[in-house]
Design a protein that fits this description.
The complex is a heterodimer of chains A (268) and B (279).
Chain A lengths: L8 E9 L5 E10 L4 E5 L6 H9 L6 E6 L2 E2 L7 E4 L11 H7 L6 H14 L15 H13 L5 E5 L7 H18 L2 E5 L3 H7 L2 E6 L4 E7 L11 H21 L16
Parallel strand pairs in A: 3-8, 3-9, 6-7, 7-8
Antiparallel strand pairs in A: 1-2, 1-4, 4-5, 9-10
Helix pairs in contact in A: 2-3, 2-4, 4-5, 6-7
Chain B lengths: L13 H36 L11 H13 L2 H33 L1 H15 L7 H8 L3 H25 L3 H9 L4 H37 L6 H10 L3 H26 L14
Classes of the chains: A alpha/beta (268), B mainly alpha (279).
Chain lengths: 268, 279
């Protein structure tokens, strides 16, 4: 099977209005170059998860277009794969089978070979015959990452994939993700509410603001990888993103009690 | 957290590790479960032997054993068991197949649900025994009408179980299938079906239980053989012992069939992450 070449992603004037009239996204335009890592950050209700679902093809936009490799797409796309907030492994499949599940378009021998390689790569060699219930949350999320990458997707979508994990596990998984990204070079769009995570991983951080969800600002992170979380430059970049989020909120000046906490972003 | 170290030694197999403990628990459970019936039996036997009770209406275990042995030696009990089990087996297969098929249809298609479900629910509201006169009129007094009644009893729990299980399949898992490009048919085969398997087995067990209930109803309403006939015969002859033998046989058969269903389904449900270690 051929690898997918659709790595360029363009979101063009996308609008999403729910049936009840709620305007989730208003005229969002965003581009991700091939192999780029883009983080979407913002308070809950800013539509970042909605945007990711539209790109994944799980929901339909009310207006505008989503282009993969220059071609407009509707619905799910073979070049796009995703890791969700929860691992969402299929509980009746073994770990190896779950990874293979992501390679629907591969011939079986390829699928098995790649799954074995990925198992080792994610540090779970020897766990292939385990059931998901026998793995920890962090291990399950690694399997989900392997599942998303086995088909060598052009575009990888991540929806707060590490938010349920403890900080140490999270940092390990950042490393793992960056390592796999260096090997396979997918374009990555990642939703997060963790500013540090965004700055560690992303080439560009897109700050979104709520009611209706729009892009407030795009911040390019020009730090060389691997990034030192303790360096002053890293800190400055982090501060820059935080300030942008603050500004997007005060501009909008919602009543204090209406500022939703990040916890409510977990609904997905 | 060292559980997240990149490479960790494969831990000993959790399942085999836990197995001996569970097996010991299992046999201990058996002992405890038998305590009440055995003690009651011994007490009753003693009461009759000591002349505290006549044992005419409630025969002691020894007399039940004699009666049962008599019925087995003449082959009578085997004939009754075979007749009843044949009815249950065929009725269960027909009812389960129909319930699964219709439940899948209404579960998978909203349009089919709107079309069929109200009628099926309305029919369900009729007490199933009420069908007996009609079945006898339509199908005669022999086997066919009995099979129809058993099938009807099995059908409803299976239908309801499958329907609600399909509607309850986790949307998040369906989305995984969509993201990885599964066709609608593959989505059903690889996600919906495995996901509803546990509920389907529960529904089949409920159906099987009702199958035994309805076979008895059918046999009480007219049969020349079967455990229901043995019950009725015992009543007419004033033989409490053969009534009790028939009842105990029912209990054993029902439990055996249910255990068989559980044993068959256990390997394919081993993936479940639930507190229930055995069904």
């Amino acid at each position: 099977m051929t690898e997918f070449t659709g790595r360029h992603l363009a979101v063009s004037h996308v609008t999403k209005t729910y049936a009840n009239g709620t305007q989730a996204l208003l005229d969002v335009t965003l581009e991700a170059a091939a192999g780029e890592i883009v983080s979407l950050v913002g308070t809950s209700g800013c539509g970042k998860t909605t945007l990711l679902r539209l790109i994944a093809g799980l929901d339909r936009a009310s207006g505008g277009a989503i282009l993969v490799g220059g071609q407009p797409t509707r619905g799910t796309h073979r070049a796009i794969s995703a890791v969700f907030q929860e691992p969402r492994l299929l509980p009746w499949l073994t770990v190896a089978q779950n990874i293979e599940f992501g390679g629907q378009d591969l011939v079986p021998s390829d699928r098995r070979g790649r799954a074995a390689g990925l198992l080792e790569r994610i540090g779970l060699a020897g766990f292939g015959q385990y059931l998901p219930k026998n793995l920890s949350g962090g291990q399950q999320q690694r399997v989900a990452i392997a599942r998303a990458l086995i088909g060598h997707p052009g575009i990888l979508l991540l929806d707060e994939p590490f938010s349920a994990l403890d900080p140490f596990t999270r940092a390990t998984l950042h490393e793992l993700l960056l390592g796999l990204w260096r090997e396979l070079r997918p374009t990555v769009v990642m939703v997060t509410h963790d500013v540090e995570e965004a700055v560690v991983l992303a080439d560009r951080v897109v700050v979104m603001k709520p009611r209706p969800g729009r892009i407030a600002e795009t911040i390019t992170i020009r730090l060389p990888r691997p990034r030192d979380r303790l360096s002053p430059l890293f800190d400055a970049a982090k501060r820059r993103v935080m300030q942008s989020i603050d500004r997007s909120l005060s501009e909008h000046a919602p009543p204090a009690h209406k500022q939703a906490t990040e916890g409510s972003a977990f609904w997905w | 957290m060292n559980a997240e170290a990149p490479i960790e030694p494969a831990p000993p197999d959790l399942l085999t590790e836990a197995a001996p403990v569970m097996r010991r628990r299992f046999s201990a459970d058996w002992m405890v479960a038998l305590l009440l019936p055995v003690l009651t039996g011994v007490a009753w036997e003693a009461a009759v032997r000591l002349g505290l009770a006549s044992g005419r209406l409630m025969p002691p275990p020894s007399r039940l054993a004699v009666t049962a042995w008599g019925l087995i030696r003449t082959g009578e009990l085997q004939t009754h068991v075979a007749a009843t089990m044949t009815r249950v087996a065929f009725g269960f297969v027909f009812g389960a197949l129909a319930g699964t098929a219709l439940g899948t249809l209404t579960g998978a298609s909203a349009w089919m649900r709107r079309l069929l479900d109200p009628t099926i629910q309305a029919i369900r509201a009729i007490p199933s025994i009420a069908w007996v006169p009609l079945f006898i009129l339509w199908l005669g007094i022999f086997e066919t009408s009995k099979l129809a009644l058993v099938s009807l009893g099995v059908f409803f729990p299976v239908y309801l179980g499958v329907l609600s299980a399909i509607q309850g399949v986790d949307r998040k898992l369906i989305e995984v299938g969509r993201v990885f490009g599964l066709s609608p048919a593959k989505l059903v085969w690889r996600i919906t079906l495995p996901a509803i398997l546990p509920s389907w087995v529960s529904a089949l067990r409920t159906g099987l239980g009702l199958g035994f209930m309805f076979v008895l109803a059918a046999e009480l309403l007219g049969a020349s053989e079967g455990l229901g006939y043995l019950l009725l015969d015992g009543e007419q002859m004033g033989r409490a012992d053969s009534i009790l033998v028939a009842m105990i046989t029912f209990a054993i058969l029902g439990k055996l069939c249910d255990s068989l269903l559980v044993a068959v389904s256990r390997p394919i449900l081993a993936w479940q992450d639930t507190a229930r270690t055995r069904l």
